[in-house]
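About this split. The held-out portion is used to measure sequence recovery: a designer receives only the structure tokens and must propose an amino acid at every position. Recovery is the fraction of positions where the proposal matches the reference. Here is one held-out target exactly as it appears in the evaluation file.
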């Protein structure tokens, strides 16, 4: 996670622990660094103008924002470290993980964004784990679903299956797929060569996800197609940083064509989902719901079989009775 510039002390360029506002110039500084500065200077550290007033106050809102950012940073670093040991394989759960002693955690992840931002290419990279053709472009008309799975048990007990949904990028149809927004993880994709795609994430896709999706989910924002250009001074990168920070989203610069950062992003997202207590409890509760549903279905099938068997017996008895009756009448 890149540290927002507002969180850095202008004197040391390091992230602040206790930010204070120098009243006269209105800028925020690390308290101890500002005190050292004012002991030896009578000017503003930022403007170099002479100070008539050296008073300062604690910037409470900035302090809270920095503390929240640090928590997210620690979480992201933890997930990133673990992601290097994680391996996600294509396809459904292997036979060895379908044993009844293992409980299945079924994770749903959605890809959201405008047409031609690279969602399908990202999905193909996750599915085939190889480079994707530059010339091939396919329009997604309905949700494409790719099954994946974790190559090892989670907590030595849970088999983790992952289904990735590539939703169509037509904004006019975004509400048609609103039931699909109920996901544990969301990958929001913009094209770095087209600023409009990020604007649509901010104004259309993300609000729809918040409206129709789960109250709690893990999200990432992808600045995709960096193989076509990665100048961090471009406004779209700055806007993406701002939007991701304000909405608690991890930010990745990716290329679905070369595969840069795609697998690392996905590994980290899956780990963040499994590290989210709310989502993990929800996934565990779904195990019971799925088992109950399966039991009800099995019971229904058993009853149907019994009823059908009884019908067959009754039918045979009627046929036999009719035949015997006819035989007696005849004789």
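Reference sequence for scoring:
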């Amino acid at each position: 996670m890149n540290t927002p510039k507002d969180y850095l002390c202008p004197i040391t360029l390091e992230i602040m622990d206790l930010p204070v506002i120098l009243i006269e110039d209105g800028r925020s500084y690390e308290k101890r660094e500002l005190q050292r500065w004012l002991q030896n200077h009578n000017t503003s550290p930022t403007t170099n103008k002479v100070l008539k007033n050296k008073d300062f106050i604690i910037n409470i809102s900035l302090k809270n924002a920095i503390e929240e950012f640090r928590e997210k940073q620690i979480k992201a670093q933890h997930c990133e470290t673990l992601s290097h040991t994680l391996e996600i394989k294509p396809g459904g759960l292997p036979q060895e993980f379908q044993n009844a002693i293992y409980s299945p955690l079924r994770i749903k992840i959605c890809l959201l964004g405008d047409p031609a931002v690279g969602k399908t290419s990202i999905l193909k990279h996750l599915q085939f784990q190889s480079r994707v053709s530059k010339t091939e472009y396919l329009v997604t008309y309905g949700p494409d679903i790719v099954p994946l799975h974790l190559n090892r048990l989670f907590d030595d007990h849970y088999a983790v299956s992952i289904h990735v949904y590539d939703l169509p990028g037509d904004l006019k149809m975004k509400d048609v797929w609103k039931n699909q927004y109920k996901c544990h993880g969301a990958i929001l994709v913009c094209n770095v060569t087209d600023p409009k795609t990020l604007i649509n994430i901010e104004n259309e896709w993300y609000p729809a996800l918040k409206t129709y999706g789960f109250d709690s989910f893990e999200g990432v924002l992808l600045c995709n197609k960096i193989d076509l250009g990665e100048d961090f001074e471009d406004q779209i990168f700055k806007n993406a940083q701002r939007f991701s920070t304000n909405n608690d989203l991890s930010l990745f610069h990716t290329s679905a064509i070369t595969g840069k950062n795609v697998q690392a992003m996905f590994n980290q997202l899956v780990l963040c989902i499994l590290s989210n207590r709310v989502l993990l409890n929800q996934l565990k509760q779904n195990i019971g719901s799925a088992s109950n549903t399966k039991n009800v279905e099995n019971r229904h099938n058993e009853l149907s079989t019994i009823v059908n068997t009884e019908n067959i017996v009754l039918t045979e008895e009627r046929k036999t009775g009719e035949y015997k009756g006819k035989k007696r009448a005849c004789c």
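Annotator remark: The longest strand covers residues 103-112.
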